[in-house]
Amino acid sequence: MLKIKPYNLFLCMVLDKFTASTSLEPDMIKKLLIFSGLLFSVSFCFAQKADVEAAVNKLTKLMVTPDSVALDKLILNNLSYGHSSGKIQTKQEFMHSLLSAESDFVDINLTDQTVIVQNKTALVRHTLSAKTNDKNVPGNVKLYILLIWSKEKAGWKLIGRQAVKVP
Prior knowledge:
This protein is an alpha+beta fold and 167 residues long. It has helices at 6-21, 26-64, 68-74, 91-99, and strands spanning 75-82, 88-89, 105-118, 121-134, 137-152, 155-165.
């Protein structure tokens, strides 16, 4: 016995109704439906990427002007935040370093950003160039960054970050 999935059955019914009322060939209609589905998929992927980029921008702004409530909402509790020095911080340690000005970013510029979205995970790579004022000592930093984002009900949340020094 031939099994037809419900969405295939629905597609067949739509095609039958549409072909009965138009002069288009069934093969042409199938091609149009497939093309429409591909367009929908592509636009969905671009929307996902834009949402991740918005989360990255929000994090960047919060690193310059920290807000404990906004940071708490953007970061998952099991964050692993790696520094180029090898130091690893938890969510609480990362937030404390920003809020206490232990890590004080005066200005951050991100370049060469790439975003890969795979299901409910996004990988973001970029180069971070920043002016800092850590513990009231002015400085500059340039790092390659990898951010790992998880898609949650409330949007994209940071779960991992790793920095390496630019050679």
